[in-house]
Amino acid sequence: MIAAVQAAGIEHPWAHQARAAEHALDGDSVVVATGTASGKSLSYLVPVLSTLLDGAEAPNGRGATALYLAPTKALAADQCRSVKELSQPLGHSVRAAVHDGDTPFEEREWIRQYANYVLTNPDMLHRGILPSHPRWSSFLKALKYVVIDECHTYRGVFGSHVAQVLRRLRRLCARYGASPVFLLASATAAEPAVAARRLTGLPVVEVADDASPRGELVFALWEPPLTELHGEKGAPVRRTATAEAADLLTDLTVQGVRSVAFVRSRRGAELISVIAKERLAEVDRSLTGRVAAYRGGYLPEERRALERALHSGELLGLAATNALELGMDVSGLDAVVIAGYPGTRASLWQQAGRAGRSGQGALAVLVARDDPLDTFLVHHPEALFDRPVESTVLDPDNPYVLAPHLCAAAEELPLTEDDLALFGPTTEELLPQLEAAKLLRRRTRAWHWTRRERAADLTDIRGEGGRPVQVVEAGTGRLLGTVDAGAAHTSVHEGAVHLHQGRTYVVRSLDLEDSVALVEQASPSWTTVARDTTSISVLETDTEIPWGDGRLCFGSVEVTNQVVSFLRRRVITGEVLGETKLDLPPRTLRTRAVWWTVTEDQLDRARINPEILGGALHAAEHASIGMLPLFATCDRWDIGGVSIPLHPDTLLPTVFVYDGHPGGAGFAERAFHTARSWLTATRQAIASCECEAGCPSCIQSPKCGNGNDPLHKRGAVRLLDVLLEGAPEEKTDGAEDEAEEGTEEAEAVAGAVAGASEGRGGRLSAPAEGAEDAAPDQEVPPVP
Question: In the chain, which end has fewer C-beta atoms inside a 10 angstrom radius, N or C?
Fold first, then answer.
């Protein structure tokens, strides 16, 4: 340990670093949950490097090994550079290497045989390392530590998948006689030990006292000004957060301030880069090359080149997605611009913490988008600065998550009854259904995988719903990049504007069967936004409580979504130029939802007649979806909603908000348990908006499949008032209770997994009759 600390050039580790390292060396799994730039990496590098340097011998004669997991390739590559720099004075005792999808095949065999510190991601562990465990046997036999960096990102359906991947890893390690210690690093989070325990399935010691020095951070909340333009239904339109962030990045670059602008979407990152370059060309053309975009979907060589330019200081300004939020060492930044609330307070502070990493003062600016949540936050800063960060929500027992991992585990090693406790209580219920679907076969006391194809290919752990769509330049055949399958219908449909490396393309055709989008370079003055329709049916109501005369429910639903058209909008102003119809197939999923109903008596008390009922429900639904990320650890794209004046299953006016992932991700359940606070904030956000009849800051959305019609602002406020009159007090205990799944749900899961095995992508049955009459919400997440 002394040699490792000296190699790191640190005489006296901070208290939290020393505490965490001591626990790890004593054999305790530990989670370090401290602020950005608090030296969390040293907390796990000290025990890892000291163990590798000590040459602790495993039974097979190979030195001790360690495995590092990062949520992004960029972070793994960045950490590998740091480890090599630290271990250089120590000779060749530490052999660190990155093993991911970008690693050349000729290097992979050397890594399997000789590397003792392998840096990878959960995707490669799931698809590459665990299915090939006999080839990794010497590494797994000697595995001493598993490092899980930025573990707060493992939430929702992705986190649930990673939790099961880690259980598969623990099972194989036990088969080879190893019992590794898990070392987790996280941004500050509520109850980090609880989240780490759910992720790993192991008891974990929590270290959360941050002893690192901090520079002053000036945090500004920025609301773009209103323009003279008017949007749908004559609503006032604010200047876009994208345009404001681009101007701020331009001004900071001109002044020589090293800055990153974080953007919610890949397209947004490209737009900010393009606008900033245009602005800089008007001031000093030599500065245009010092601003770039960074996002997923780039080719590996493009990403590595941008990372080198950022580290060297060649780039002054970067417009990036959250790939740079996750721990990459971008020391030396002076300012961070955040274009739109990133969805959680944890992500907000993580992004803001990218500036001032060397202890110096820094600037962070949150630029509000024109939507209910962002508007609420800039007018209620106490919701950001006076509240703790959120708990991490994940559900490893989600049967849609667990089923394919049971199949993968059975292919790796036949499942036995001794494995049931490891994979969770839902396992015993699912195994007979997987047998009935002819995915597993029981022989004596073990379950075996029955198919020829790889079981690991049954699921995409990031929930992206299949093979990525390749974006190909039509004239040259050059591969520009990829788009996630779940987002292809909305982002690379025919006629869509696609941005790549600052260049603009228009999609000529989308071939869903071959997963290819052909594009050609163009220079349109607009961008495109997809419009979709959604219907929903209730499958099972798990919990139902009275809210006065109304009801609040939680259970299983089936959602059908179809992209039907797209809008053309001016880049800077957002002005709508026209709408074009599309012919794309519908997609369905079974998921979890929270919904509430109101009665005729409540409508009478709220003075809501049939003419305005649809608009009041629709407006309340829009705003409640926008506000939920303040109460659940989710992104707006993780959730969706539907409202209908008379739903065929409830026979009452009903508003649904659902998880946008098969089987659910825990967000709707959190909404159910915090419904009083959530809907109170929703009512406040609508009522406090200065507009007369509704605008994007309260009840409108550019993604509404119904074109924001009908909407009734005052009706929504009165509706929520009468609903909240009967709201019971919230219970703090039980918010994380897991709903039990019935046999019918297990059968549906097994059928979905079998469908994926047969190449049908896990598509489920059609919705109940009458569900197509529902009015869709404004934010429908991609349906896998």
Answer: N
Residue 43: both structure tokens together = 């907390």
How would you class 596 by CB atoms within 10 Å of its CB: exposed for 0-12, middle for 13-18, buried for 19 or more?
Answer: buried
pLDDT of residue 319: 93
Using CA atoms, how far apart are residues 385 and 700, in angstroms rounded to an integer?
A: 27
d(CA 614, CA 617): 5
Residue 75: closest CA among 179, 181, 189, 187 = 187
User: Residue 344: how many CA atoms within 13 Å on its side-chain side?
Assistant: 26
**One-letter identity of residue 623:** A
CA 111 to chain centre: 30
CA distances from 593 to 440, 628, 658, 670 (A): 30, 13, 4, 10
Specify whether the CB–CB gap between 119 and 82 falls below 8 A: no
Contact of 102 with 138, CB cutoff 8 Å: no
Q: What are the phi and psi torsion angles at 533 (to 5°)?
A: -120, 150
CA distance 257 to 344: 27
Q: What is the DSSP letter of 363?
A: E
Q: How many CA atoms are closer than 13 Å to the CA of 519, on its beta-carbon side?
A: 29
Cα(784)–Cα(780) distance, integer angstroms: 12
122 and 165 Cβ atoms separated by less than 8 Å: yes
- Predicted structure pTM score: 0.72
Asked if 135 and 112 touch (Cβ cutoff 8 Å), the reply is yes
Per the omega criterion (within 30 degrees of 0), is the bond before 710 cis? yes
Amino acid (one-letter) located at 407:
C
d(CA 59, CA 635): 46
The dihedral region occupied by 297, where left means phi > 0, alpha psi between -120 and 50, and beta the remainder, is left
Which pLDDT score, from 0 to 100, does residue 204 have?
Answer: 95
Q: How far apart are CA 127 and CA 567, in angstroms?
A: 38
Q: Where are the alpha helices (DSSP H) in 295-339?
A: 300-312
pLDDT of residue 144: 95
Low-confidence ranges of the chain (pLDDT < 50): 7-8, 56-61, 327, 732-743, 759-784
Residue found by looking up tokens 């390392």 in the block: 129
Confirm if 49 and 88 have CB atoms less than 8 A apart.
no
Contact 665, 393 (CB under 8 A): yes
| Contact indicator for 295, 270 with CB cutoff of 8 Å | yes
What single DSSP character describes residue 357? T
Q: Say if CB 240 and CB 224 are below 8 A apart.
A: yes
Task: Please say whether the beta carbons of 423 and 413 come within 8 A.
Answer: no
The answer to whether 485 and 297 are in contact (CB under 8 A) is no
Tokens describing residue 604: 């009478």
Length of the chain, in residues: 784
**Could you identify the residue written with the tokens 């008032």?**
721
The answer for residues whose C-beta is within 8 angstroms of residue 339's C-beta and 6 or more apart is: 241, 242, 244, 245, 261, 262, 263, 264, 268, 272, 367, 369
For 162, other C-beta atoms within 10 Å of its C-beta total 29
- Which DSSP state fits 417? G
Mapping DSSP to helix (H, G, I), strand (E, B) and coil, where does residue 366 land? strand
User: Helix, strand, coil: what percent of the chain each, to 5?
Assistant: 40, 25, 35
Are the C-beta atoms of 505 and 522 separated by less than 8 Å?
Answer: yes
Judging by DSSP bridges, how do beta strands 143-148 and 96-98 pair with one another? unpaired
Alpha carbon distance 450, 128 (integer Å): 20
pLDDT, tens digit, 9 for 90 and up, residues 336-353: 999 998 877 877 888 887
Residue with tokens 């909407």: 711
Give me the amino acid identity at 566: F
Other Cβ atoms within 10 Å of 716 Cβ, number: 30
Contact yes or no for 773/535 (Cβ under 8 A) = yes
- In degrees, to the nearest 5, what angle opens at C-alpha 505 toward C-alphas 500 and 507? 115
